[in-house]
Amino acid sequence: MRVKLFDENHEKDLEKVINDFISSSSCDIIDIKYQVAIAVSGEDQIYCFSALVMYESK
Asked: Are the CB atoms for 34 and 51 separated by under 8 Å?
């Protein structure tokens, strides 16, 4: 089993990089763990969308 980590500032960007990884690699996806972190800096909210993809190489 192998893992790949993804970290993006926008959920659509995370979706794109994960879909690109899945379509460009010949692997079997075992599981995907998803997480959102939010931080406040002054009046700004900073989001971090991340995922851990567990997969088997073919």
From this structure: yes
What pTM value is reported for the model? 0.84
Give φ, ψ of 23 to 5 degrees: -75, -25
Cα–Cα distance between 53 and 29 in angstroms, integer?
7
Beta strands in 1-58, from DSSP E residues, in sequence order: 2-8, 27-41, 44-57
43 phi and psi, to 5 degrees? -100, 0
Q: Report which DSSP code applies to 26.
A: -
40: containing domain: 2-57
Q: What's residue 6's pLDDT?
A: 98
Number of domains observed in the structure of the chain? 1
Q: Where are the alpha helices (DSSP H) in the chain?
A: 11-24
